[in-house]
From TrEMBL:
<dbReference type="InterPro" id="IPR051454">
    <property type="entry name" value="RNA/ubiquinone_mod_enzymes"/>
</dbReference>
<protein>
    <submittedName>
        <fullName>DUF3656 domain-containing protein</fullName>
    </submittedName>
</protein>
<dbReference type="Pfam" id="PF12392">
    <property type="entry name" value="DUF3656"/>
</dbReference>
<dbReference type="Pfam" id="PF01136">
    <property type="entry name" value="Peptidase_U32"/>
</dbReference>
<feature type="domain" description="Peptidase U32 collagenase">
    <location>
        <begin position="370"/>
        <end position="486"/>
    </location>
</feature>
<dbReference type="InterPro" id="IPR020988">
    <property type="entry name" value="Pept_U32_collagenase"/>
</dbReference>
<dbReference type="InterPro" id="IPR001539">
    <property type="entry name" value="Peptidase_U32"/>
</dbReference>
């Protein structure tokens, strides 16, 4: 493998981490600007920081990508575009985007600004990548779950593929997690995730019986592909992304350096050990590499576990320990007590293979392991490498100094050259003339520039004199001019015209008021369908629906994730059913594959429609209706209604899915090593209970899992306000569907209170979702 076959892409939360990434051998760095970044808690970069970072990186042949990878509200769009303008003008190489509305505006206003589709867009197959390529995206950051065969298929497109190779994992498909948002208003789609996946849960059945005790069933191990990264490149992956914008510079250096060495076939056992030591929650090779269940999750604890370096020999009276590695003052050690893990900072040197008595504040368990969570020697070693790092380009310099003429300096490095003539005549020396040695001494003082003199030629004619300040100015000007030329050449601008894609014209209809999604046919059988304007079913229920002989057209709800093969088979199957009038898309790939068929395409909540620009994008794409994000509040919805004539939907009732994942929590209990037994498993539906005794329903499908919000959304009198607007009410059916329909057809406070009491008895609570609070103010 040559360097041109791939790009090592490193994280940077600040300038120190950026310098660490570059010194370790990164080809590109991704970072967050001062706002609109999905790592809101990282330090991130000011405009002045960014100028310094671009200057530093571009002189060293390293690219910079900036994350603008959150959903943006209408009132923020102008500010977001001002940010983009600043990023464009300072020379950022590319933007990483989630919001399609913002992307649409960027493509129109800055057609030569390279844009990458964030993993928050949840692209996991060929058709999703094709959709974005046609919109002008040059790169797709694939969902972490994307299998290698799908990467191979995507590689047939003219689009760069970026994949994660190391670091923390989201258990949910990125961009499709609303759990933190619905629980506490901290949205992952705004970079403020409270990490509900890192919490412990009990598992219960629907009769209230505990199935399994509290563990971290949703907490993935950290990804580590040091031994498998070549497979990703061979499949067609180009940019190899390391997670870690919240990590320190030492972590960034160690991980980047290890992958650079792995890719150059120079990885050592010590490199692997140091990568484990610097941070790990245990390691997985990833779902795409076949890990599953316990191999994928850090179910016993959600945090850094360090490396095992000893044992508690005795804890009966005194605590006696034995280390299998030398321990140094400053090392962080971790012990296991009867109430969990606790830390201890070593203040002494302990030699390996000897017994030592330790005075600890807590008593560890006898025969338990001791882990080192922080190695002072490793950090000192890395810090020394960072301090000693130098990047130099060879430079050839020639200086011409002649009495009575302007002095000239010529410089060349790689394919760049520079000439500077100082407009000061060289004077005849009155006393000591300028020596060649003195001129060489001053010209050679390149200081902290990136240049190192390879060849230096000094040509002095006559009895010449020049002050030191003039010699220094010659050197300084030619070096700065060379740097400017290099920086200009590194500016990555490649104009692509923005063209709205053409879709088959579809008849636009007035908004139908009530749309009901039936997750099972029993609810459909028990619902009066006379007031239902659109029946929405899962594709798995189509055959059963035919047998009911209702003679009503239906729409099909599409799951959020399919492989390209599954999508092709699904399309062929749906086309055979002439009573299917529409599809509800939860992934861009589903719009792509059905775009020329005679179906009404509806954007569902999986597409995260958060502003008027995104609505207009889908409206211009020919979509029949567009579902607004359940993370919007009423003011933001009102603003969108005001700005568009598109056919809109809002979820007005039901328990929405708050996580969609490839992982199966119950596989941790059963010890499943893959998903082959999923179709026959008896544990597809159960509850997880959090520390506040709130239950969340878990439903395992054959190849993915959904977790549903604990309480159903039930909109209040806001439905009266929007009744005359071009907006539909989407109901997620259950046993109360008829009463919910009746409530929304003729809303009254008495009806609302009555149904609310019933729901509270059934579900222990009801929520208005974000209709009042939202996830941002404004």
């Amino acid at each position: 493998m040559t360097k041109n076959n791939y790009e090592v892409l490193a994280p940077a939360g600040d300038m120190a981490a950026l310098r660490a990434a570059v010194s370790a051998g990164a080809d590109a760095v991704y970072l967050g600007a001062w706002e609109f970044s999905a790592r809101a808690k990282a330090k991130n970069f000011t405009l002045e920081d960014l100028k310094e970072a671009i200057h530093y990186c571009h002189l060293r042949d390293v690219k910079i990508y900036v994350t603008v990878n959150i959903l943006v509200a209408d009132f923020e769009l102008k500010r977001a575009l001002n940010l983009v303008k600043d990023l464009y003008e300072v020379g950022v190489d590319a933007l990483i985007l989630q919001d399609l509305g913002l992307a649409r505006e960027i493509r129109k206003n800055y057609p030569d600004f390279e844009i990458h589709a964030s993993t928050q867009m949840a692209i996991n197959n060929y058709y999703g990548a094709k959709f974005l390529k046609e919109l002008g995206f040059s790169r797709v950051v694939l969902a972490r779950e994307t299998p290698l065969f799908e990467i191979e298929k995507i590689s047939t497109l003219d689009v760069e593929i970026e994949t994660f190779i190391h670091g923390a994992l989201c258990v949910s498909y990125s961009g499709e997690c609303l759990m933190s948002s619905m629980i506490g208003g901290k949205s992952g789609n705004r970079g403020e995730c409270a990490q509900a996946c890192r919490k412990a849960y009990d598992i219960y059945d629907f009769s209230g019986n505990k199935i399994a005790d509290k563990k971290y069933y949703l907490s993935p191990k950290d990804l580590n592909t040091l031994e498998d990264v070549g497979k990703i490149i061979d499949a067609g992956g180009y940019s190899l992304k390391i997670e870690g914008r919240m990590k320190n510079p030492e972590y960034v250096y160690q991980v980047v350096r290890s992958y650079r060495k792995a890719l150059e076939n120079n990885l050592t056992l010590k490199d692997k050990e140091d990568t484990t030591q610097v941070f790990n929650r245990g390691f997985t090779k990833g779902l795409f590499n076949g890990d599953f269940g316990r191999n994928f999750t850090s179910f016993d604890r959600p945090d850094n576990r360090g490396v095992e370096i000893g044992k508690v020999v005795s804890a009966k009276k005194d605590v006696i320990v034995r280390f299998n590695e030398d321990i140094y003052p400053g090392d962080g050690l971790e012990f296991l007590g009867d109430r969990g893990n606790f830390g201890f900072k070593s203040e002494e040197f302990y030699k390996k293979d000897r017994d030592y008595k330790l005075n600890l504040n807590k008593k560890p368990l006898e025969n338990s392991n001791i882990n080192r969570t922080y190695s002072i020697k490793l950090y000192e070693k890395i810090d020394e490498k960072l301090k000693d790092y130098e990047f130099k380009k060879d430079i050839d310099i020639k200086v011409e100094i002649e009495v009575g003429k302007f002095p000239k300096i010529f410089a060349k490095t790689e394919d760049f050259d520079s000439i500077f003539e100082l407009e000061e005549e060289v004077q005849e020396a009155k006393n000591a003339p300028l020596s060649k040695e003195k001129a060489e001494e001053n010209i050679s003082k390149l200081g902290d520039s990136i240049f190192e003199i390879r060849n230096l030629e000094i040509d002095i004619k006559g009895n010449a004199f020049m002050p030191v300040s003039s010699i220094n100015k010659l050197r300084r000007e030619v070096v700065e001019n060379l740097e400017r030329k290099i920086l200009k050449s590194r500016l990555n601008r490649n104009e692509k015209s923005y063209v709205e894609r053409e879709y088959k014209s579809k008849e636009k209809k007035l908004a139908s008021r009530i749309k009901v999604f039936f997750t099972n046919l029993e609810d459909l059988k028990n619902t009066d369908l006379n007031e239902v304007d659109e029946i929405i079913l899962r594709v798995k229920d189509l055959e059963k629906y035919k047998k009911l002989n209702l003679n009503k057209n239906v729409s099909i709800y599409l799951d959020k994730f399919y492989s390209y093969k599954e999508l092709e088979n699904l399309r062929n199957y749906i086309l055979k059913n002439d009573f299917v009038k529409g599809i509800w898309a939860n992934n861009l790939s589903e719009i792509e594959i059905f775009n020329n068929d005679d179906f009404e395409i509806n954007a569902d909540i999986g597409l995260n429609v958060f502003n008027s620009e995104t609505v207009e994008f889908y409206n211009n794409e020919g979509l029949h209706s567009i579902t607004l994000s359940p993370e919007l509040n009423s003011r933001q919805i009102d603003e969108i209604i005001k700005n568009t004539d598109a056919n809109l939907n809002i979820v007005s009732y039901g328990r929405i899915p708050v996580m969609t994942m490839k992982h199966c929590p119950y596989s941790v209990i059963k010890g499943c090593v893959d998903e082959r037994d999923c179709p026959n498993c008896e544990h597809k539906n159960y509850l997880i209970r959090d520390a506040k005794s709130v239950d969340f329903e878990v439903l395992r499908h054959n190849t993915f899992t959904e977790i549903f919000n604990s309480y159903p959304i039930l909109l209040d009198g806001y439905v009266n306000k929007i009744r005359n607007e071009n907006i539909n009410l989407v109901i997620l059916a259950d046993e109360f569907t008829d009463e919910i329909i009746d409530l929304y057809l003729s809303f009254s406070e008495d009806k609302y209170k009555k149904i609310r009491r019933k729901l509270e008895n059934k579900y222990s609570g009801v929520t208005k979702g974000h209709i009042n609070r939202g996830i941002i103010s404004g």
